[in-house]
Write a structure and sequence with these properties.
This protein has 120 residues and is an all-alpha fold. The protein has two domains: 80 residues, Four Helix Bundle (Hemerythrin (Met), subunit A), CATH 1.20.120; 39 residues, no CATH class. Helix content is 74%, strand content 0%. Helix 1 packs antiparallel against helix 2. The N and C termini lie far apart (39 Å). 9% of the residues are buried. This is Transcriptional regulator, TraR/DksA family. Keywords: Cytoplasm, Metal-binding, Zinc, Zinc-finger. Pfam families: DksA_N, zf-dskA_traR. It comes from Thermodesulfobacterium geofontis (strain OPF15). One of its GO terms (molecular function) is zinc ion binding.
Length: 120
């Protein structure tokens, strides 16, 4: 991959990482600001449900952060944009949509088919 394109994807990944870290800090701040229990049980349940949802989102984002870090490492190593399954180049459109992608679209589809078969 050309140097300019690698730099583009590096900046895209760094921006996504920064956005996720910002959201994590906001959630952390919200957690520290939770005050006393609310007098209304419904309000308390709503707050706890919202908090649980936020924590699930942050868990997913933690996994995404690991993928972003892996992609950044691949850029440094010179292996970014190469499918881990078949070794072909990952289409640029796919990388723009998911810069942390490690599989080409054909291998990703095959992986998803296998997951569906195992899940049934």
């Amino acid at each position: 991959m050309e140097k300019e394109k690698l730099e583009f994807f590096k900046q895209l990944l760094l921006k996504r990482r920064e956005e996720i870290l910002k959201e994590v800090m906001e959630t952390k701040k919200e957690l520290t600001e939770i005050g006393e229990p609310l007098p209304d049980a419904l309000d308390q349940a709503t707050r706890e449900s919202n908090l649980a949802f936020e924590l699930r989102l942050r868990d997913r984002e933690q996994k995404l952060l690991k993928k972003i870090e892996k992609a950044l490492k691949k850029i440094e190593e010179g292996t970014y944009g190469i499918c881990e399954a078949c070794g072909t180049e990952i289409d640029e459109k796919r990388l723009i949509a998911r810069p942390e992608a490690t599989l080409c679209i054909d291998c990703k589809r095959a992986q998803e088919r296998m997951e569906r078969i195992k899940g049934e």
